[in-house]
Amino acid sequence: MGRGDLSDAEWELIGLVLPSERGRSARPAGDNRRFLSGMFHGLLVGCPRRDMHQRYGRWNSVYVRFRRWAEQGVWAASLQTLVDLGLTK
Q1: Residue 72 domain-assigned?
Q2: Is residue 58 part of a domain?
Q3: Measured between alpha carbons, how far is 3 from 64 in angstroms, rounded to an integer?
Q4: Is the residue at 33 inside a domain?
Q5: Considering the domain boundaries, does residue 89 fall inside one?
Q6: For residue 78, with 0-12 CB atoms within 10 Å meaning exposed, 13-18 middle and 19 or more buried, which class applies?
Q7: Would you tell me how many other CB atoms lie within 10 Å of the CB of residue 42?
Q8: Are 57 and 21 in contact (CB under 8 A)?
Q9: Which phi and psi angles does 82 have, rounded to 5°?
Q10: Which long-range contacts (CB under 8 A, 24 or more apart) does 60-66 make?
Q11: Which of these, 41, 57, 72, 73, is most buried using a 10 Å CB contact count?
């Protein structure tokens, strides 16, 4: 498990509030957990997107999903859920 990768317990909490990528007409959506771990890895390590490790998928796919979720309000809704559950400091 790399820096920024989600543990099973963390994934059980956050995985439920992320949107399903099924039904998109483009390429297969892949695994939300892998993409989310890639997003966290990039934020924690501070590496340029193009230098992201391949285990997270293509760097551009990770970025596109990050941006799409931002536009859809997924980050704000996820944070509110964590606050409501009392899991933030």
Answers
A1: yes
A2: yes
A3: 21
A4: yes
A5: no
A6: middle
A7: 21
A8: no
A9: -65, -40
A10: 61/27, 61/30, 61/35, 62/35, 62/38, 65/21, 65/35, 65/39, 66/35, 66/39
A11: 41
Pairwise CA distance, residues 15 & 11, whole Å? 5
Domain count for the chain: 1
Structure tokens at 62: 């990770």
Q: What is the pTM of this model?
A: 0.77
Instruction: Judge contact between 24 and 35, C-beta under 8 A.
Output: no
Of the candidates 21, 49, 23, the one whose C-alpha atom is nearest the C-alpha of residue 33 is 21
Render each residue's pLDDT in the chain as its tens digit; 89 residues. Answer: 676 688 888 888 888 788 776 655 555 556 888 888 989 888 888 888 888 888 888 999 899 989 999 999 999 988 888 888 887 76
The distance of Cα 1 from the centroid of its chain, to the nearest Å, equals 15
CA–CA distance, 68 with 37 (Å, rounded to integer): 16
Q: Which two tokens stand for residue 30?
A: 């892949």
